[in-house]
Write a structure and sequence with these properties.
Radius of gyration: 21 Å
Number of helices: 17
Structural class: mainly alpha
Helix content: over 70%
Largest sheet: none
Number of strands: 0
Strand content: under 5%
Mean pLDDT: 77
């Protein structure tokens, strides 16, 4: 008799496979072939051309991220949390945009800093800026939206970190958040990655050590596949957006130069989180359809702040009041960044 005890697990495995970016790409193109075969070639060619145009940025991003991992550059970030509190906030906001961490690595790193007594305002500055930008995201954003937008996002990331860090310091001096941390702090992030090192120094000539060379090769291959699959999905979605979503609808919702579209984009972007590699191509399509530059910036920043890993990191370590402050600072900073970017 056939054993069916593993059927639920098999179904679960099958559903998980269907959720992968490659499967979604195939499914979306198959739907176009079924429902609108005349447009299949145009949609496919659009996605491929867009992906190829970003290829040089992908290669550079993958190389840079592998290099930072192989050298152990993440240890430099810990040094930002030394010295006077105002200096910590400034450096934490700056390093937040440079740290070569995956999203889940932020959790044990922050837990370690809090355990060592790092002040919460500096940690908040890092929390707010870290999900917004990193070297690979900067390059992918530049490839999809141009360097002015990418640099604007990097400036907004650092500015948001500074805004959040100093705002939280001011509130704490007024008596708020006197006991911000939860008693049971979570220092793990599952099995998806290992915690970053908290000591030592970077080895910039990583090729002199066999273990670091292996790290470089492993990170290069892993990140190349990661970026390729997510960007393939992103550009297929952009192609569908351009071909099937009416431009006047986008222009009505988030077009124009007023403040209302920027506010709308922030509140739409926060629940509709897209990771930092998928968002730029989609926003490029939305901007082609009439979305304003300020609304695009607001949407991207609000979405990054509300990413599941970023929110999980905050929720796992601090009390609900601090978590609410994190979201409030994030959404207000996204709106302000959009308004300033629109003006400039």
């Amino acid at each position: 008799m056939t054993d069916i005890s593993q059927s639920p697990r098999n179904w679960s495995t099958g559903l998980s496979y269907l959720k992968t970016p490659w499967s979604l790409v195939i499914l979306l193109l198959a739907l176009v072939a079924l429902l609108d075969p005349a447009n299949l070639r145009d949609v496919t060619e659009f996605a491929i051309a867009a992906l190829l145009s970003t290829a040089r940025y992908i290669v550079l991003a993958v190389f840079l991220l592998a290099y930072l991992k192989a050298t152990g550059a993440e240890v430099m970030v810990a040094r930002a949390f030394e010295g006077r509190e105002s200096r910590m906030i400034l450096l934490a906001a700056l390093f937040g945009g440079l740290a070569p961490f995956c999203s889940c690595e932020v959790i044990p790193f922050i837990a370690g800093l809090l355990a060592l007594g790092a002040p919460l305002p500096a940690v908040m500055a890092f929390w707010l800026s870290s999900p917004l930008i990193d070297p690979p995201t900067l390059l992918i954003t530049a490839g999809a939206l141009g360097w002015p937008f990418a640099i604007g996002k990097a400036v907004a990331a650092v500015s948001l970190g500074l805004f959040g860090g100093f705002a939280l310091r001011g509130l704490m001096r007024l008596g708020a958040f006197q006991s911000p941390l939860k008693k049971q702090q979570s220092s793990g992030c599952g099995s998806c990655c290992s915690a970053p090192k908290m000591g030592g120094k970077p080895q910039w000539k990583f090729w002199q050590e066999a273990e670091r060379r292996q790290t470089f090769g492993r990170e290069f291959r892993g990140n190349a596949l990661f970026l390729l699959k997510w960007l393939a999905l992103a550009y297929v979605l952009e192609a569908l957006l351009v071909h099937y979503v009416p431009a006047d609808l986008i222009a009505t919702l988030v077009g124009g130069t007023g403040v209302l579209p920027i506010i709308t984009a922030a509140f739409v972007g926060m629940p509709a989180y897209l990771n930092s590699y998928v968002a730029p191509p989609l926003l490029a399509g939305l901007m082609d359809q009439g979305m304003s530059a300020g609304a695009a910036m607001s949407f991207m920043i609000a979405g990054a702040v509300s990413s599941i890993p970023a929110m999980a990191a905050v929720w796992s370590l601090v009390k609900p009041q601090v978590f609410a402050a994190y979201l409030g600072l994030g959404i207000s900073g996204a709106i302000l960044s959009g308004i300033l970017f629109q003006m400039l």
